[in-house]
């Protein structure tokens, strides 16, 4: 289990920019991951700006809830508190087969404390499948490149820069914007859970 503050910039990319950036920097890791997202039928977590998922990898899994950070260190980039619990692949498969979440860890404790009457209503409602590249980017700042597909067949490309130092994120983004002529929105791009909801299919 871990709790950590997440500060990150998200940039939507087209396929050309994605491929250019992927080819320009050393690859630190290359893997697949699947996110399965959970909420109550009346979207109680969404109302409170919480995002709950089980993420599965080739040989492991984790359950995470992202919640708003009460005391932000900065205002420019997305910032949240992540609460994580490790799961085995077998545990995750068991819960996902039932469309349910694991309530025995710290994520479960948070849910039971904040939503005591609603934890039994949590069910999976959509998913996303991501091919993720971790790159050693400018100033040795790690860049995450995601190619993600959704239930309705839609796919997109995204770059994330997560770091404890907002100034480093800013410098890294500036160099990438200049080198690859990126159009960077002044507001946060839509989160994966929001995009997965939009492209949930029937």
From TrEMBL:
Database matches in Gene3D superfamilies: Hypothetical Protein Pfu-838710-001 (2.40.320.10)
Residues covered by the CYTH domain: 4-202
Superkingdom per UniProt: Bacteria
SMART domains: CYTH
InterPro entries in the record: CYTH-like_dom_sf, CYTH_domain, Uncharacterised_YjbK
Protein name listed in UniProt: CYTH domain-containing protein
